[in-house]
Amino acid sequence: MIIMFITGLIEIFTMIIPGISGTAIMINIGIYDTVMDMISNLLNIDYILMNSYLYISYFLGIVIGGVLTLKIVKYLFEKFDNQFSYVVFALMASSLVLIFINTLSKNYTLSTIIISLFILLLGYNISYRLSNIKINK
Fold first, then answer.
1. pTM of whole model > 0.85?
2. Of all residues in the chain, what percent are helix, strand and coil, respectively (each to 5)?
């Protein structure tokens, strides 16, 4: 039960802070399969009733973790704006590097890699253009 609460804390933390993979952390602590079972059985009333303690502790971890994470992030941005921005940027950049390294270790075809790079550049281009749109008020 404590593990599911901590998993909820970690899950919401990784949703709020960019660049940290909640899935990777859950796999490393060995809880990923349990969380996937919980999600895949959301419509199975018998499963929910038998494992209600897991759902409740996970949900409480998400709620409490969300409140705490938002308060911590707000404090860090107020007190250490530049430094915290650099930390967030470093987390995002390191995630891209790890994804790239992981991609190279797989046996993807050249066409798959080229398509993926094209989609990456397309996404960057769209994000860049959208960030430069002036909103008239």
1. no
2. 80, 0, 20
DSSP 30: T
For residue 56, CA distances in Å to 34, 50, 62, 63, 68 come to: 14, 12, 10, 11, 18
Q: Residue 135 — pLDDT band, cuts 50, 70, 90?
A: low
Residues 6+ apart with CB under 8 A from 58: 4, 5, 7, 8, 11, 35, 38
Q: For residues 3 and 97, which has the higher predicted lDDT (pLDDT)?
A: 3
Tokens coding 48 = 């929910």
Mean pLDDT (the chain, rounded): 87
At 126 the pLDDT is: 93
Whole-angstrom distance between the N-terminal and C-terminal Cα of the chain? Answer: 50
Residue count of the chain, please give it: 137
